Amino acid sequence: MDIRPAKAADLDAILEIDSVIESTDYLHVDRGGDGVAAVSFRLERRPLREKLIAPNRLDDDTQFVLKQVLTGMDEGVALVGEHDGQVVASLLAQHRPQFETVELIDLRVDYDFRRQGIATVLLFQLIEKARENEAVRAICCATLTNNSPAANLLDKHGWELSGLDVRRRSNHDLVKENATLVWYYEIT
After folding, report:
1. In sequence order, which residues have a C-beta less than 8 Å from that of residue 104 and are 6 or more positions away?
2. What strand order describes the sheet that includes 2-5?
3. How far apart are CA 110 and CA 118, in angstroms?
4. Using CA of residue 134, residue 81, residue 157, residue 29, what is the dihedral sign?
């Protein structure tokens, strides 16, 4: 397995990574109280009603950012994991100087190559690149409550769950069990 910077020629291969999400549980959000002073949230791992199998294709905005970074039109970090000449994983991130952070936009590993440490290596590569930039205090990313494999990966490697957005995708995120979790990894 080779981890290397992505090139413009890798774009089609990155788009073809089979990054289907499979999950049998989710992080249930229990909201309590009213108003600013009394509002509270509690997360609890619960089984999904039925196994989640979601295609996890790159949306148009992420594809645009990826193209911009790969062609050098915009700054960012794009890495790929390659096995026998085939791109099987990718990571995309961009520096957000206004927040002194790096945003992890996308991390995907082909279904057939999961649980081999590829995502961990890509995360550590990003952390090292962020440490090289003195203007970066943290790396941030967002996951959905029903993507427990992503939450497990981030939690396992010391990312801190720092926030919750119950309306980022719709007005019914809590009902649909797909609220957005915000994670940070502090750069020390």
Report:
1. 91, 92, 93, 123, 126, 139, 140, 141
2. 2-5, 77-83, 86-96, 101-109, 138-144, 180-186, 160-165
3. 10
4. positive
What is the identity of the amino acid at 25?
D
**Half-sphere CA count of 185, side-chain side, radius 13 A:** 21
Q: What is the CATH number of domain 2-186?
A: 3.40.630.30
Dump pLDDT digits (tens) for 45-91. 999 888 989 999 999 999 999 999 999 999 999 999 999 999 999 99
27 DSSP β-pair partners: 45
What digits encode the pLDDT tens for the residues 138-148?
999 999 988 99
Length of the chain: 188
> Are 62 and 105 contacting, i.e. CB atoms less than 8 angstroms apart?
yes
